């Protein structure tokens, strides 16, 4: 299974560097990407931040959020509810073992832990620190 961090998924909705790569990564497997409450939170917060920084208008924010919600309703993503205590336990272990070498932040560490708990073998990110942690956790980092 291929796991996508929120940064990759965000690029599906906002034209940013690596957006074409993100679209290709999500599309090449054909399976609906897993989506958790953490993804939902980060997507909505990031889109709101873009508007708050003046990078998009309020109308654009509303349109992007509506597109995201429509995709959720249409089953574009495979919404999943992991066992959060297990995810946090795994994240604590990952942080203890790899944060000094990866410099990975807690939310990024949670994504790696989520990928492992969901049974992913591939981890898609454009974040270098997160890629280092995912690799140390024996996930195949894509791209």
Please tell me about this protein's structure:
It is a single chain. The protein has 143 residues and is mainly alpha-helical. The protein has a single domain (1-143), classed as Rossmann fold. It has helices at residues 6-10, 19-27, 37-52, 58-74, 84-102, 106-117, 128-136, and strands at 2-4, 34-35, 78-79, 122-124, 140-142. A three-stranded parallel β-sheet has the order 1-4-5. The chain has a two-stranded parallel sheet with strand order 2-3. α7 links the parallel β4 (122-124) and β5 (140-142). α5 (84-102) crosses α6. The longest helix is centred in the middle third of the chain and has 19 residues, at 84-102. The radius of gyration is 15 Å and the shape is globular. The two termini are 15 Å apart. The mean pLDDT is 93.
Corresponding CATH architecture: 3-Layer(aba) Sandwich
Shape: globular
Q: At the fourth CATH level, what is the homologous superfamily?
A: 5'-nuclease
Mean of the pLDDT scores?
93
- Give the tally of β-strands: 5
Question: What's the tally of helices?
Answer: 7
- Spatially, the strands of the biggest sheet line up as 1-4-5
Strand portion: 5-15%
Helix content: 55-70%
What is the succession of H and E elements?
EHHEHHEHHEHE
Rg: 15 Å
- Which structural class is indicated by helix and strand composition? mainly alpha
Oligomer: single chain
| Count of discrete structural domains | 1
CATH topology: Rossmann fold
Low-confidence stretches: none
- Can you summarize the main beta sheet? 3 strands, parallel
CATH uppermost class: Alpha Beta
Q: What is the terminal-to-terminal distance? A: 15 Å
